[in-house]
Structure formats: structure tokens, C-alpha cells
Amino acid sequence: xxxxxxxxxxxxxxxxxxxxxxxxxxxxxxxxxxxxxxxxxxxxxxxxxxxxxxxxxxxxxxxxxxxxxxxxxxxxxxxxxxxxxxxxxxxxxxxxxxxxxxxxxxxxxxxxxxxxxxxxxxxxxxxxxxxxxxxxxxxxxxxxxxxxxxxxxxxxxxxxxxxxxxxxxxxxxxxxxxxxxxxxxxxxxxxxxxxxxxxxxxxxxxxxxxxxxxxxxxxxxxxxxxxxxxxxxxxxxxxxxxxxxxxxxxxxxxxxxxxxxxxxxxxxxxxxxxxxxxxxxxxxxxxxxxxxxxxxxxxxxxxxxxxxxxxxxxxxxxxxxxxxxxxxxxxxxxxxxxxxxxxxxxxxxxxxxxxxxxxxxxxxxxxxxxxxxxxxxxxxxxxxxxxxxxxxxxxxxxxxxxxxxxxxxxxxxxxxxxxxxxxxxxxxxxxxxxxxxxxxxxxxxxxxxxxxxxxxxxxxxxxxxxxxxxxxxxxxxxxxxxxxxxxxxxxxxxxxxxxx
Length: 500
What we know:
This protein is an alpha/beta fold.
């Protein structure tokens, strides 16, 4: 069989370009036209959605309510002010285009709602699933418009999806490109060599966390891809060494212990099948001690330099960061981008009506060395039927849950909510998952649905074989599950960097 990782057998969208000036917009009318196009697409698709589904779902309300979800500051390559400006332009265009068909929850009203959700733990409890969080707020919103931005040199690719309270995507815009000016790019003006950046970041961070005694490595990633290319792994290793060195001078000769942020096998074994809080699936909360911080980072490609953000966070959520630029010319040939782009397979993650956590002992989007074992951790906010697929670097895809061994003991892939489930695991998949050559970026993609849909799926998606699925199956998965009638659906995925 062609599954390379199992110990026993693994073997056309339209792009618009708008130029911005750091002092003023060069062409306000051109910018307005971009967001008008966004609004026309989204409002048109929402209005033309399946009437029977919409009528059934909105029978309790006459005017549907829309809100624009803010970008997360730690996941975007621009300042919060620029991101806010983009969403403000979209909201204005949506209001114009809707012509009274919808009500809009003002962004100034959404901010305290989100703050309250954070304070009360509602938002955190769903692990970044905004639809599920809003459902807990007593029908505050009917459609949530969620933006996605990606960066390629100085071009920002922006797109939006409109997600209903039932978790379905009712509207999706094509990507539109915005070329940023230097004034709209966060960070300093001087690009450093990697060594200079590492020393500067280590000194800055050590000064901000004088109680640092233990450093847990949580991964440095390329943009929003989840990937940890060779440069990311190099940067993490050198940052750890630099923080240890700085501690000798700044922290009174203190020795800093360094370890991988990881939930241990013993902790997993104790929790498997038990009720677990969402926090227990995050390595930073595993056996947390005073003075322990998790090191994470992100870098964005601005063409001739990489805007890099390195952060330290403790278990209580206290976080400090360093932001700077690293010259691409000074990387010495280290590859800083992933060869595989998984965006199309992940764009509907977290948009469902109930929480669905898919993670690993090393957290979401981990890096593993060849020869190491991978475990998947699953926690659902409610009982659901789960289907999982593994995509290898070469594009070959295999269904790992349910699978032929699962069907020997069970009749349906139903997993209870609130409990910890693992793959591999006793009964459901009693094999070790050992990562082998080739190195690269791989993906686990899972779907959680509100009823058993096994017999409604194409034969190849019913878990009756561990052989590779037909070519191109990976790109069909989301559309197949989202076309199923009378179901609610949540999606989740984990990008796995396999390194040498």
C-alpha cells in the first residue's frame, strides 16, 4: 500500500490591484470599487442561497443580521489600524449593496461583544470557532463575514466568506489584491541579518520576562500557512540558544531549561476517553509551572525582507513580543517558504456551528522529524460523526478515520462531545503513525457532522480501505461534505511539517 507513514504499511479568480499611499490613498474611488465588488458578490450569493434552507433556518426572524468579524492582530501582516480600515470599507459597501435587506451589527458594538466573550471564556472555549462562539450569545448574529489575507511580497490578497449560523458558507468572494505602501507595513525600517535579529529579539524578550526559567518551543511558522520550513526551524533553534546565552548576563547567570512544548504520552493516556477542557489540548497548559514560557513566531514575506514576530507567552496568557525585519539576501540559501500551498484545503476550517478541536501533542500545525510518531487529538463541542483524511506531501490522500479496522468493532463513526479522542488509539486505529521520507508539508483534514452520513458519501470516502484515494480527492472533500442535505458541519485541519 502506498501510505508512506504507517509503521506497518506506510510506504480562476479575478485579481484587482489598488495602490495605497502612506499619507493618503492614491485613488479612493479605485479602493471603493474593490469593496463594492466584494459586497456585490457576498450579498448576491447570500440572497440567492438555497431558499428552502434559508426559509427554514430564518423562520424566526424577518431581517437577517450580518457582522464583519475582525482580523486577529497576531495573524495578519499589517497593523490593526490598517486591518480595521479594510473591514470598515467592506462594511460600508455591504450596507450600500444590501439596500435595507439586512441589518448590520456595527463594528463598535461587536468589539465589546468579543471582549465579553473573551472575558467570560466563551470565545476561548471554542478554540477560535467564531460561529460556535456567537451561537452561545443568544442569536446575536445570523451571518458572519470573515476575512482572510495573505501576503506575497508587497501585495495583499484579500477575500471574504459569509457563514450562516448553521455553519454553511452562503457567500464567498474571489480574492482581490491590494499593494501596500511602506507606511502600511508594520515593523522597523532596517532589515537585519538572521544573527542580528536573533540577538536583538533575545535581548528584548529576556528583559521583558525576568522570571523566565523554562523555555518551551512552540514553533515558528511562515505567514498563515502553518508550515515550518527550514528557516523557521533554524530560527527557533537559534532563538532558544540565544535566550539561554542572554540569561547568563541579564538574568543573573540563570540557567534556562529548553524543551519542546508537548503533551506527554502519560498525560494523553490519563485523559483519553475522559471529559477534558479545551485548554488541556494546548501544550502551553500541559504541566505549566511558574517561569515557563512558550516560544512561538510568525514571519511574512515582503519580497526583499521577512517581517518577523517572535513571542513568549505564559500559561496565564501574558505575552510579550519582538517585531523586526530579516533580510532575505542574508539567509544563506535557507528555504523560508513551503513548497506546498494548503490554503484551498483549509479556508473553511473553524467556520462551523459547533467547536471542533483537532490538534497534536505539540499543538496545532506541528513539526516532526522523520522517525518520530504522530498522534492526533480530537475534542468536539457536541456529539458528532467524524471523518478524517491524511494528505501526503506528494498529494496522495488516505482516509484514516473511519477505516477498515474501525468497522470491525463499530457501526458508525460517532464520537462523544467534550471527551478526548486520539488517532491512533485503542480499537479505532491500533497502529503507530511513524513519519518517514519524504520530508515536506502534509495535512490532516477532518469533518464533524451532525448525523451519520457514511452511506451518502461517495464509496471512496466511506473508510473501507487504507489505499490512496483517487487523484484529486483532496480538493473535493469540503464540497462533498458541504453539499450533504440536512446536516450541520464543522471542519478542522492540522498542517504537519515533516523535517529531516
